[in-house]
Amino acid sequence: MMTVVWIVLGVLAVILLSQAIFVVRQYERGVVATLGRYAHTADPGLTFILPFVQTLEKVDMRETVLDVNPQEVITEDNVVVTVDAVIYYEVTDPFRRVYNVTDFRLAATKLAQTNLRNVIGDLELDETLTSRETINAQLRAILDDATDKWGVRVTRVELQRIDPPRDITEAMSRQMKAERNKRAAILEAEGVRESAILEAEGQRQAAILSAEGQAQAIREVADAERFREIAVAEGQAKAIVNVYSAIHEGNPTHDLLAIKYLETLQRMANGQATKIFLPIEASGVLAGIAAMGDAFEEGRMTAQGGAGQ
Predict the structure, then answer these.
(1) Binning pLDDT at 50, 70 and 90, where does residue 307 land?
(2) 104-120 and 132-147 helices cross at what angle (nearest 10)?
């Protein structure tokens, strides 16, 4: 009989110890209540409470993901889209998390679905598809404000999918294809235009270089001709100087006499005479003219040879 009593007492002791000793992990907090009234929040570690008098509820303080079930939402331009979202939250106050809401996950899910309808209902389809960051920020601000009294902070809201109806998706696909074809045609036309511009520019540069080369050649030819003419003129001038020097020195030659005869004949004719009388010494004059012509030709050849060098 005593053995049975001891066994019963041992079982009761084990039950009492299991109800009195709790291990709170590092990422948890323990909300302790005495006879249903909040007593304190237990920190991580070994925690003792009074069995049957006190209770302890553990609260996970880690960031948690809440999946919002896909739902159909009507946009401002009356297009039905299916939206799937997730919510990231973390507990900031274990007391309010336990005592201010019965089922936080259900409450947060319903709250997110309601506000998704409100936010997306104010946007057109194109804005809905291109403004995910804006929608995420608006939802996070709304949910964070609503869940603050529950001791929870919403850190992020992410829209996983926004699915328009199939016919709208097909129309968007055709529009995207047409837009890409148009961009491809524009790029091709721009490439052809750039190629034509570059080709024309190359031809223009080639024409400019060819014209510059021809102009340079013409200038060189002109310079050579000018130098030749200058050399010839210098030779003729030298010959004339020699002739007049001989005249002034008082030792005229037959060449000089021939020149003087020609000048005298010119004055005699004066553009009016029809007859010209040649003196008996005409043969000597003609010989002097021939000798003078040879002298001028020799001077010209000498000048050209100097210009060529």
Answers:
(1) very low
(2) 140
